[in-house]
Automatic annotation (TrEMBL):
Residues 14-159 form the Glycosyltransferase subfamily 4-like N-terminal domain. The lineage of its organism: Bacteria, Pseudomonadati, Pseudomonadota, Gammaproteobacteria, Chromatiales. The keyword Transferase applies. GO terms for molecular function: glycosyltransferase activity. It comes from Thiocystis violascens (strain ATCC 17096 / DSM 198 / 6111) (Chromatium violascens). InterPro entries: Glyco_trans_4-like_N. This is Glycosyltransferase.
Length: 362
């Protein structure tokens, strides 16, 4: 089977990393991958061993010429189907290009951001199937008017064994600039408003008073970096909270965290939560979007209402005070990832949708 994948993201995290996992799994099963992505993006280099990479100009939702470029690529590569992995213009322009060439198109929806019904009616008409990475996203899409007959659920996955490694506590704590005996919380998310960093900042002062050795690291990058730095300084928290940026050593860092907090307002599923659970680290997260599928109350973490600072503070405080419970939740997360979020399950789920479309066309 020949599949043309289209991914508009420029950084190799989140959705783009899921695309890489899928490409590797498909290639291992003997399928022919082509990948259209922004010129020079991180995914392009990583995907070269498992796909024929076509770097294209991709300028977002307003890039009308993207449809022309993708139509030309579809005609040149003659794929059995087109799989559109992102928004950033790829969903609409890729759908138009596939429609113009008569090739079946699948769009994977990774976020639960609400869309107006008129947009849902127009945009998803271009796609033969829509894959949601969580039941939560699927419910949002159907509530906004997507025909249930078009919807399929294929959860994101994680190579959980690559995160289930021992913690070299001394080395990692030294790398992060914190003492070995520190209680260390991580937040792994882009620095954007909907990720909810501000709620954790509001919750912290009493927690630091109770645990003076508490340190927090925000792993990620984004447009809120300067504002967050200023907010931390204004509240006198700079000595306890630091922005650590995007890390390529996260698999080494994660097992050495005592807790990961994910205080988002909305989330499709949360790949960082899958990675965290794989590393055996307990989680406090918002009960939003698809998160309850990745963070099971009492099994690998604690869920709180989005934006509820007192509930967030109470959940974090309870876990910081109970190392035995933290260890139990960490072990539960590793078991959950191995059982329900394997790479093989994700690849086979996508393949099932591909085969369904191709058999329909044939």
């Amino acid at each position: 089977m020949r599949i043309l994948h289209v991914e508009g993201g420029r950084h190799l995290y989140g959705g783009a990393f899921q695309v890489l996992h899928l490409l590797r799994g498909l290639a291992a099963r003997g399928h022919d991958n082509w990948l259209a992505c922004p010129q020079g993006c991180a995914l392009a280099q990583a995907a070269e061993p498992v796909a024929r990479v076509c770097g294209l100009p991709m300028h977002g939702d307003a890039d009308l010429l993207m449809a022309v470029r993708l139509r030309r690529l579809i005609r040149a590569t003659s794929p059995d189907l087109v799989h559109l992995h992102s928004r950033i213009g790829a969903d609409v322009m890729g759908g138009l290009a596939a429609r113009l060439t008569g090739v079946p198109a699948i769009h994977t929806r990774r976020v639960d951001n609400p869309e107006p019904p008129w947009l849902v009616a127009l945009k998803y008409r271009l796609h033969d199937r829509v894959i949601a990475i969580s039941e939560g996203i699927g419910r949002v899409l159907v509530s906004e008017g997507l025909p249930a007959s078009k919807l399929r659920i294929v959860r994101s996955a994680v190579d959980w064994e690559s995160y289930a490694r021992p913690c070299d506590r001394g080395t990692i704590r030294a790398r992060l600039g914190v003492p070995a005996e520190t209680l260390l919380i991580g937040v792994i998310a882009q620095l954007i408003p909907r990720k909810g960093h501000r709620f954790l900042i509001e919750a912290l002062p009493p927690l630091i008073e109770a645990h003076p050795n508490l340190q927090v690291r925000f792993f990620g990058q984004g447009p809120l970096a300067t504002d967050l730095q200023r907010h931390l300084a204004d509240r006198g928290l700079s000595g306890h909270v630091q922005l650590a940026g995007f890390r390529d050593d996260l698999a080494e860092i994660l097992p050495c965290l005592d807790l990961v907090v994910h205080p988002v307002l909305m989330e499709g599923l949360g790949v960082s939560l899958l990675q965290t659970a794989s590393a055996g680290v307990p989680i406090v997260a918002s009960r939003a979007g698809g998160i309850p599928e990745a963070v099971r109350e009492g099994e690998n973490g604690v869920l709180v209402p989005p934006g509820d600072v007192p509930a967030l503070r109470a959940a974090i405080g309870a876990l910081l005070a109970d190392p035995h419970r933290r260890r139990a939740l960490g072990a539960g997360g590793q078991s959950l990832m191995a059982r329900e979020f394997s790479l093989d399950a994700m690849v086979e789920g996508n393949l099932a949708v591909y085969r369904e479309l191709i058999s329909r066309v044939v």
